[in-house]
Structure formats: C-alpha cells, structure tokens
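As agreed, record minuted below.
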Amino acid sequence: MAALILAHFLLAACAGPLVGRLGTRAFLVLAVPPVVTVVWAATQWGTAARGGAVSWSLAWLPAYDVWIALRLDALALLMVLLAAGVGALVLLYCVRYFDDRTPLLGRFAGNLLAFAGAMLGLVLADDLVVLYVFWELTTVFSYLLIGHGSERKQNRRSALQALTVTTLGGLAMLVGFLMIGQEAGTYRISELLADPPAASTTLSVAVVLVLLGALSKSAIWPFSVWLPNAMAAPTPVSAYLHAAAMVKAGVYLVARLAPAFADTPPWRPMLLVLGSVTMLLGGWRALRLGDLKLVLAYGTVSQLGFLTVLAGAGNRDAALAAAVLVLAHALFKAPLFLVTGIVDRATGTRDLRLLSGVGRALPWVAGTAVVAGASMAALPPLLGFAAKEAAFEALLHGGPADRWALAAATAGSALTCAYTLRFLWGAFARKPGLADTPVRPVGAAFLAPPALLALLCLLFGPGVSWWNGLLGAYASAFPAPAHPYLLALWHGPGTALVLSAVAWVGGLVLFLLREPVTRLSRRIAWPTADRVFGLGLLGLERLALQVTGFFQRGSVSVYLATVLSVLLGGQLAVLVVDEPWVGASPPRLWDSGVQGAIALLTCAAALLCLPVQRRMKVVVLAGLTGYGTALLFVVHGAPDLALTQLCVETVSLLVFVLVLRRMPIYFQETISRRRLLMRVPLALVAAAVVATALWVVAAARIAPPAGAALVTATAGHGVKDVVATVLVEFRAWDTLGESAVLAVAAVGVTSLIYLHRRAGTAEATEALAVPGTAPEPLAPASPAGPTAWSYGSHFVTRGPVAEDTAPERTWLAAGRTLAPEYRSVVFEVVARLVFHPILVLSVYLLLCAENLPGGGFVAGLVAGLAMMARYLAGGRHELADAAPGHPGLLTGLGLLLSTSVAVIGLFDGAVLHPFSYDGHLPVLGHFHLGTPVFFDTGVYLLVLGVVLDIVRALGARVDQQVERAAHEVAKGARP
C-alpha cells in the first residue's frame, strides 16, 4: 500500500520531463500507478468481502501513539477502486482533451497524479493524524488544479475560495481529531471503531469539529459555495475531483466514523438536516443555470447532500445504501463531466442556450450521456435505480427523523430528474428557432473513458447483487436489523417504487415547465453564496486594515506596550486562577555574595539606561547587562552558557554600533507626563509578573533533575561535555530547526537592506538609490577610490565610487581606502595580527566541544567577531580581503552539511542517529570522530555566514549608501 502511494508521488515528480518529451502521450505513462492500484485492489476483494483487512504500519511518533498506519477494508477498497479507477480513465481522457501546446501541461499532469496519490492515502489511512495529512494534501493539490490557468482571475479566485473554505474546515477537524484521540487514548481508526470512547461533552464537541471538516470538504450547505466556482478548472479536474475524489472525502469520513459516533449527539440531527437542505438547494439552483458544467456542479452538491443523509443516518441499511450510491454517483457523474468536455471541445461552448442539434452530429456521445443521465435520474435497469431504491427503503424503515429525510430525498430526486432532463435537452436536442451548432468530429479514443463508465452503470444495474458481499461487509459494522436489506435490481412493487415514480413524474413536470420554473427561481433567489462569501471576505479585509492601522503605528514603544499588555493579561489570568505559588518553595535572593554583587551591578546598569539621552551610551549600558548575565552564568558554574552569552552580547553590541551610524546621536522622542505615567507602571508590573512566573516555573519541579542521567548518557558516548552533547545529539532536531530559522531570518533581514540582487563577493557595480534619486549602477573605480569613511572634509571631491572588492594586495587595505582622520593604525595592525589567531581559536572551540566548553554556535560567533574586527579596522575593502566569498555560500553549505548528517542517520533507522569512530594515528595518538562533529561544523559555517551577511548588509552596504550620497554631492559642487 505504501509503495503504491509513493509511486504516485514519485511519478508525479517526473511528470514535467515526461510531458516535455512525450507530449500528451505522457498521460499514458502517468496512468500506470492508478491502473496497478486497481489491479492490486481487485486481488484483495475476497479478503475485504469476508470482513477481513490488509494492514501496514510504521512508527512515526510512537511516544504519542502516532503511526503511519494504512488499512484496506471493505469501505477503503470501494474508495480505492473509485479513486484509482476513475483517476486512470481521466488521465487517459487527458491524452485527447489537451494538446502538446497546452501551457504548463507538465505541472498540471503532476498535480493531477499527486492528487490521486493523496486521495489514495486518505482512504487507506488508519490513523487520524495520517488521515489529516493526506486530507490537507488533497486540499493543496486541488487548489493547484483549480488554479491551473492562473492568468485568468476567475481561476485564481476560485482556487483561493476552495482553499480557504476547506482549510478552515480541515483545521477544525484537526482539533476534533486531537480531542477524540485524547478521549479514546488512541489515534488508530480501527481501534476507535472497535472500542469507541464513552459519550461526553468533550466528545460531542470533537464530533462537531470533525463534521465541520467533512461538510466543508463535501460542499454541504453552508459550505457549498466553493464547489460550483471550482468549475473554472479544466474538465478532467471537474470529472475527477468533483465526482470520484475530493468531494467524496467528506462523505467517506462520515461513513468511516459513523459506526463509532452515530449515536453521539448531535451527529444525526446535524447531518440529516444539513444534508437534506443541501440536496434541495443544490437541485433547485441547477434548474435555472445555462452552463452545462454548472448544472452538473449544483447537481453534485445535491447528490452530496443525499449521500451525507445516508452515511450519517447510522443504521445498517442506510450505510449499505450510502455505499452503493457512492459507487453509482461516481459512475454516472464522471462520464457526464467528461461528455461535457467533449461537447465543449467539439462545439466551442458549454452554454445550453447556444447548443442545438449536437445529438444528431455526435450520436455516440449523446448515447453515452443518455445512459449516464438515466442512471443519475434513477431509471431502471441502471445502477442509479438500484441505489435509489436501497436509499428509499432504508429511510422508509427508520425513525421519525429518517421519514422527514425521506420526504426531502423524494423531492430532491424529482429535482434530480428535472435537471438531468435539462442537461440532456440542453446539450444534445435540436431547439426550435436555433440553427444546428457546427461540430468537429470526435475520435473513439476521446469517447472511450466516459463510454466505459456509462457501460458500467448499465452492467452493474442488473449485477448490483455482486456488490452485496463487499458493501455488506462495511454495513455489518452497524447493528443488523431483523430483516437486513440486500442489494437487487428488482424488489417488486412497494412504497419505494411508488416514491421513485413520484420523483420521475415530478421531475418531468418541472422540466416541461422549465420556463416558468426558471423565472420563479430567479425571482425568489436569495443572494448567491458566492456574493455573501465575497462580501464577507471584503469585510474581513477592511477589519484587518483597521486593526492593523490601530496597532501598527510605526512606534516601537506602542508595539512593546501591546506585546506586554497581552503577556500580562495571559500570565495574570493564569496566576490568579491557578494560584501556582501555593506550596512553592520561597525564592532565594542569591547563592553567594559574589552572585548578589554581580546581580546588583547588572540591575544598576539597566537602571542607568533610563535617563541617558545618547543612543550609544544606552547601547553600551545594555551591553553591560548582557555581560553581567554572562558573569552570573560563570558564578553559577555554567561556562558553556557564559561563553555563548558573552559572544552573543559582543556581536549584538557591534551590530548596534553599525546601525547607529545612520541614526541621530540623541533620542528625539519627547515623552509627555501622561505617557510616562502609563509606561512606568506597565513596565514595573510586567517585570514583576515575569519574575513571578520564572519563580513559579522553577519551583514547580516535581521530578528529579535530569543532570545525572545526562552525564551518564554523555559518558556512554565517550565524551564529557553534557551541554554540547545535548545540542548536537539528544536535541539535534531542535538545533537543526533553530539553525534553519536563523538562516531564514538572516536572509530576510539582509534582503530588506539589499534592495538589488546580491551578486558575487560584494556589490561591485550596484549601488543603492539615494533618497530622492533613481538607482543607477556605479561606474567601476580604481581600487584606491573613496569609501564611506574617506569622505572627510578634504576628500569630498574625490573621484568615482570604489568597487566593493579589495584593492590591490597590501598588508593593510585601509591604507589606501580610509581618510587619515578616520584611521587608527594601531587598531588596524592589532586587528590584522589577531585575526588568524582568533580564527584558530574558533576552530579549537569547534573541535573541543565534546569535552570542553565550546561548540559550533560559539565558534561561529568567534569567527564572525574576527571578521567584524577586520571591517571596523579597515572598512569594507578590508572585509572583502578577509572574506572574499559570498556569505550566502557559507550559510547554505552549513545548512546542507547539518541536514546531510541528519539524513545519514537514516541508514541506522533514525534521523540524526549519531555514528562514531575511534582510531589511532602515529603522531596524534588516539582520536575520536563522530557525526556530531560534522553536524556542529555545519552550525559553525551557518553562523559565520549569517554574521558575515549582517556585516555586509549593515556595514559595507551602508558604506555604499554614504559613498553614493557624497559622490552626488561632489558632482553637484563641481562647476
């Protein structure tokens, strides 16, 4: 099973090259996985029909009882046959529907096959979390398929609408799944069905949330807005997604969970009421539409409502009727959609008001549509008739609620007959006063897929009893009645047959009165759901703009006050309600006098920030608080934390210095007395609440400390440094994720500064635009040209701006690029002398991390500090000389190396599994080498690349801005 699902996705990834090489014939290759799936499912028919199942599982999150579990039983087998069988025929249909010149055909083909794989995984999933993953994959791929042809606004809007509605329902469903899993103690679907959790308020809420996801997926009112608009997609998408696949997912989920939760309130009322309303509204709307695809779309909405009623009724006969109607609906609705595509291709229109005489020109196409339409209208001896009879019988012998649903089903069946006649008449009949529509010939290969599906409708009508074993195996999950219903084409005259006759006569009358019915329908029509959705979305956007405008005022103090207010509200609510301080040990002010003295000095540095008006002084004082924290770590016996804090604080301080070069020296904001009276209490309360929360968290420990166990586990790896081992082995997943976040954040921040494309070692010929001027490339200058710091009083009128590459090789590049008044020869010499020793120190910190304080993060910061020292001493040319490569290369290489080490662990069955090797070298002696060292090396390269990227953005790039501005001033000052 897993191999079949994987085959769909792997071949989907190759769809682009296949289509590029084979054209539309590539769909023949892409149809292989669905065909193989159908053959495999057919071989499992006997097992499923006997009530057995085929299972497969792989541990995913065993600690949380989440498994990649797949299971093929009777209901899953039915859905697999439909999803794979109809999918294969749709792919074959695409060979003739498209041509080799169709744009983006490879992407479309890949998305369609991937959707088939996602649907296959959904119906086979035996775990709620796995089902949700495949559920959302179908949402994503349907969004891509509906949005195919994104140059048209309607496609984009329809795709976004489908994504919005189904995703919101899916999120609600996920919460419901988690609640059910917690209540039952398992997420395994087969275990839930075998031993459902006891009824409770929590379970009822969870069921409602799950049903919201199912109803939104199957376009049940009030979520039916997205399905008709999805007709903007190509016809093969409509035939597959809206007949056999995506919209059936919600019905499948209801049918899957009904044996366990049908008695849980409000399951039955919710499904019976909404299903009946959807059946009537969809059928009524289909009577006044002129587009053939929209007629079928609203007909699909109506049929989905009927299916929801049957699947949610919660008894054995209704479940049997739901299963056979799912089969019948796929077999008659898919060919009708495919025939609509043929008519569209042959005539150039789908408007039934413009079509005339098409049936005479395309008799085989019309015959296929008549057979499928007759099955949809439930005429004997077709499969649709047998399914409708089973449905009427099941509802007829149910409770009072089922009787009301039966009345709605009878009315809905009359509407189905009416819009079926309207579809066939509009597509193929010759209309008085309208000339015959010109028709292009249709090949047999184009008609074969819908013709085969229509033929199955005809064969499975008399042969519906063949399905008793398989579908009865699913229905047996419900309590058996005294006289269980068996599928058959003819059960003799009875109430069900009378109701069918009433539906046929009613449908015929509605069709004959189509003109007055259409006028009446338009006169009493409510605002369309699409319009309501659009107005709701517009209102949401306006509300978002107002809320954003209220909070996003461009004031950092307002942002900080908002964040602190939300933090205080949440923390105070928890503290007041839970009273977590009760029974907590009282806090200690300090463990030693030295610790207390350092803490007091740190607090004093923080308080001194308040009255200072110069920005640089505030930065220095804030840096002192960071260094004070590092000293507290030292006193507390945590050298690793102290070293990390020291490096981070130093880098942060230097970054502040780079930023402050372009800011006013003094704070310019004036704070009124009223604002001061608001900010001071907020700051004090926030500090008190955070301190209390930290104390409560620290005092809440009830388990013994994990330090001893970590020391033992670390020693078992042959190393000594517990902190480094935790970061690169025990918590390597966290470290890898944090590294990726750091890389993304650095790219995002620097991209805001790099307004132009990054190139090469630096921006040699690009310059940023000066405010008020248009950007233009700088002419290359001599290596000794002016730089940002060379624009002193005597150097304003120098030549063109220099490149960002280093000047010709000299020991001190600043000698020819910095103005004398901005140079410090001592600083330059010292920076150059300590540069390589600092790099060696960074490598040492990297390699010694297994037994001494250090690690890739700290080592990367130390190496970054060496680069920053070169820049501060000699400017951007000195930096370019020290680091000629692009920093993005280091960042990407580091992330690649860490990820590669993680993937290598799969050879032993687990991601990030560590490997080690102990050896002996003649000179070095014994050595220990492990994959965590390579993982840490990746972190080292990534951090170094991030620091270099920041220095180039805030340093070299800002220098170019200054040079550009001064160069413009110099040009303007020339006579």
